[in-house]
Amino acid sequence: MPDKARIRAEAARLRTAFEAEGAQAFETTILQPAEVLLDLYGEEIRARAYVTSDALRGEQMLRPDFTVPVVQAHMTYGAEPARYTYAGEVFRRQEDDLDRANEYVQVGYEVFDRDNPIDSDAEVFSVIKSALGGAGLRAATGDIGILMAAVEGLQTTAARKAALRRHIWHPRRFRALLDRYAGRTPVPATRRALLAAADPFAKGAPEIGLRSRAEIAARITALKADAEAAPISKREVGLLDAILQVRETLPNALERLRDIAVDMPAVSPAVDRLARRMQALDRRGVDVAALDFEASYGRTSMEYYDGFVFGFYAENRPDLPAVATGGRYDALTRVLGQGAEIPAVGGVVRPGLLLELEAGQ
Description:
Keywords: Ligase. The structure is a single chain. The chain is 47% helix and 17% strand. It has 15 helices and twelve strands. A nine-stranded mixed beta sheet has the order 1-5-6-12-11-10-7-9-8, sandwiched between helices. Helix 7 (158-166) packs antiparallel against helix 8 (171-181). The longest helix is centred in the first third of the chain and has 17 residues, at 4-20.
């Protein structure tokens, strides 16, 4: 791993390049309030966050990334449109892999612009790609918005769609829920007995745990309503599976998704956005004919991404994480904007990994 002085110099180079694109330098403290951030980051980051307690300030955490603090600051003080860049250390526990860094430098580029989100997607991707220079990295792209639209279009209950949306970023749970809602997996015997009981509280079992009796009763009522709902059709499950299996170069993926949209019209607006984004990338000089697209890409990363997602990888170093990643996070601005919102997209680069690849060439 390159020494810290070289990493800081490379970070400064990247930040200068982003400032040349019109980005304003952004600074934030290393120690951040934990309560709001832990709710926003999702399980993957929550499990890896360094959290401590302060007698005056409550729970605090070492900064796991910059995006949430940037959004918080922009929604409070920012003008429109806005571009930001930053550089600094982030911290994530690596309890299952001692070879992965738990502290590293991250340099980012974020765009807040409501006039043309499609162009903003293409801008961030191309600016990050240009900053990576001749590192020879493979780019992967995806679009969480297509899968979210597919879930929203299912002919099933609102509660089931909400559960599936909540677990889009957890592929195994998503699959388990989908199979259950489609009637592919049997209802556990304990649940059948619970739902069949005239009075689930009749046996007088001790009430253990934090949930009140009213909360338990509400949960049982929800389970009964779910048990009475018709299963998701085999046809719709097949269309969802077809979307998740799309893995092609971008033009071919677009054609495949257009075919699926004929039978699942709910995804058509999202597929149209993908087509416009491809055109915007082409206008910025990206070789879209060779650009990879995976419909399931991004489902195990930050849970605040809700649209376009991308990453850059060293194919000759599969042991390394992504050198750069990014995506669209419009919903995050709604959460932190307290009623206000603005389309937003950004990406980050790890300068230490860039230098490590350069040293190995």
